[in-house]
Specification:
75 residues; mainly alpha
Length: 75
């Protein structure tokens, strides 16, 4: 049986992966969602970024925040 997830839930997991650098494996375990589903949601978000300026800006922003957080953690 296939689960139906709310868009906000999907966005949250995509943000945790792309914006905060959480692994898909850890998110799948914590939220009891298949690894494949999260991967698809992230791919769909990246694809949407190619066609939607606001999503692209959001994606770039999340990547920059992750990069800065990684630098801070290494300092």
């Amino acid at each position: 049986m296939s689960m139906v997830y709310e868009d906000e839930f999907k966005k949250k997991l995509v943000h945790l992966h792309i914006g905060e650098g959480r692994s898909i494996k850890s998110l799948a375990k914590e939220y009891n969602v298949s690894h494949g589903s999260i991967s698809i949601w992230c791919k769909n978000f990246r694809d949407e970024c190619q066609n939607n300026e606001q999503y692209r800006q959001d994606y770039d922003y999340k990547k920059e925040i992750l990069k800065l957080n990684t630098k801070l953690a290494d300092a």
